[in-house]
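Hi support team,

I'm filing this because I wasn't sure whether my run with fe (ii) ion finished correctly. The job status page said complete, but I'd like someone to confirm that the output block is well-formed before I use it downstream. Pasting the exact inputs I used:
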Amino acid sequence: MNILGISAHYHDSAAALVVDGVPVYAIQEERLSRHKGDAAFPLLAIESCLQHAGIEPDELDAVVFYERPMLKFDRILTCALRAFPRSWRAFPKAMKNSLGEKVWMRGIISSHLGVPGRKVLFTEHHQSHAAAAFLTAPTCHAAIMTADAVGEWTTLSVGEGERVANGPTTIRRFREIRFPHSLGMLYSTFTAYLGFKVNEDEYKVMGLAGYGQPTLVEQVRKLIRRTPDGAFTLDLNYFEFHTTAERSYSSRFIELFGPPRNPYEPIALDTAEGQRFANCAASVQRVLENTLVELTRNLHQETGLPDLCFGGGLALNGVANARILAESGFERVFVPPAPGDAGCAIGAALYCDRIHFGNPDRELPDHPFWGPSVDGSELARLAQEDGHFAAESQDGALIDQIADDLAAGRIVGWMEGGLEFGPRALGHRSILAAPHTTQMRDRLNREIKYREPFRPFAPVVPIEVVERYFDIPPGGTRLARFMSGVFPVRREWRSRLQAITHVDGTARVQVLEPAMSPRLHALLEAYGRRTGIPVLLNTSFNLAGEPIVNRAVEGYSTFLRCKIDVLVAGGTRVMKRTSATAKTQVDKIKQEEIA
Ligand SMILES: [Fe+2]
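And here is everything the job wrote out:
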């Protein structure tokens, strides 16, 4: 049975293909269209899925959209009418957005793919999140929590999932919290207030929080009230996101926290104003963590289960995840590599397979590499045409050479195997570098990533030695499998791991098992033999404002446009000749792409 899952029209569209109960391929539209956060109907991603499996649209048994458009429309309409006349400005925009494409999704999918309307199915947004978190996790019985800004109406849900090997699957929802009461909207409101992009830059708020003190927790507490049933409500006097598209916070919010940050001004952390913004970030982060810990603690008591599966955009908050693991009572916390809306494409397809069609449970591969494979020979051809020295070698020799490069302080663009699905580079489209000095961090920020100085880099470490360098609790390695937890760097190693140690002594560590990425694991070991520390800095292979690279040509183009010293794709290694020649080569690639 072939089931295609689609998420689209909010941010980060994606498609995923499930064949006989097992995901075989998934990709975000942005990785193909090269438009970051592409929210368009994911035609390229769908085509890529079908091409990978060698099937035509008429061989699809079902196409599942990740939310119910009519329910979402109902929410938008209800909120607009409830807020009338204040909402009159936003009303036409909201209606145009909703009526334009989203409500008529069955017809749109049907006409784009040429499949009959009866094959187009819908799951609820948070059902998709729950399925993506639970059905891909190696656990048979777990509590489930989903939390984001909003789906149709739901903003947070708790429940339980159970599956029997080769047998039936159940996913039960106990309770939900509904719009406009939303932890995600609370966090996004601060994201906007702090001058960052909503739905995109929430992780910058978490990064900035490390530089502040939670001095404004009492004020944030005025915005969110816990209710006797264990849920919460927002005090809507402080918000405007439910009535207008123009601004998410109200004048009362500004009275409480002061003037918002101008997005075009840099954050000067050594000034009182800069510190105020860092303290705001630290305070909303603390309140978010405390609320999630309380909710998950209650859920643990209620279910008595050792495992929690956590999905939705809020599950990208690695600091909160680590606190949930430490304080909720759950022994293991599973966060999928794509907990946000892109991951709903896999979730919707799996939910449809197990629940709608009642197909038996299947053991699923436990990795994030669902996209297209990179072609090393394509890189060799491009580089040789430009007169770069491209060497193709066997694994052992190549890995020794790259370990030498890294030990010599060279920055390496590393591409291998299938592209990661989800926002994080987990070793298949990564920039790797020595993690030891602040000079390396500054060089990467200045010359390659062009980004704010407070943004930390992440490390990758083999599972066998993680406890030597990081203070990671039992169960933490699971959370760190897909870089979903933030944990302290051991004090005695911080001076030798400066480039990946955040200002508060923590790191968003990726713990690597050999089976997940054998070549990267071998590289870490080879690097350890040279330097005594088998830890590398691992940051996503992209420039600011661009999506993570996918094909060899995109890696090559990025390599030429920034100060990456060495590029690897599969078994091919290319070293930069001179930076002076780079521009003509970029022009050549652009011309090729246009042609
Ligand atoms: Fe969502």
